[in-house]
Request: fold
Amino acid sequence: MLKIHIFIHGNSAQKTKNLIIFFAIFKPMTDIFSKEQRSKIMRNIKSQDTKPELAVRKFLFSHGFRYRLHRKDLPGKPDIVLPKYKTVIFVNGCFWHGHGCKIGSGKRKPQTNIGYWLPKIEKNIARDKENYAKLTCDGWDVIVVWECQTKKNENLKHIFHELIEQKNANFSD
Ligand SMILES: [Zn+2]
Reply:
């Protein structure tokens, strides 16, 4: 018999959301949602303010940075934009954007419905690359923060080290 263990984090609203996500992704064969409903759910997930994203925002704010969010006019709709530093930040989920960490690869990847999620991940990776290239061409610095890196402040300090230095050098900010 197949046993599935689901760990649902967060408050009850998040739990409901996560449960919906789980079924939308891993149980498509059971037709709980129609294809259109599933697409809608996936779109919503992308546009919501995720916990990793909030962690990055909180970090930047506490270091005195002011930012804009989800600028639709820029390629890939970057999660956080620091116009003054001509920098865009993407906070990427390890699973859907194919990070090489424990979450993004190897053992933790579900072995069911690979045919469903693998092409999606590959597509995301290709699209990410394209967007980063476009932004770089337009003179933006692109910083990618992975979900797994947002759990420790130390990691964020390391990632934003140069930006913080730049800011400190500019006292008029
Ligand atoms: Zn990761």
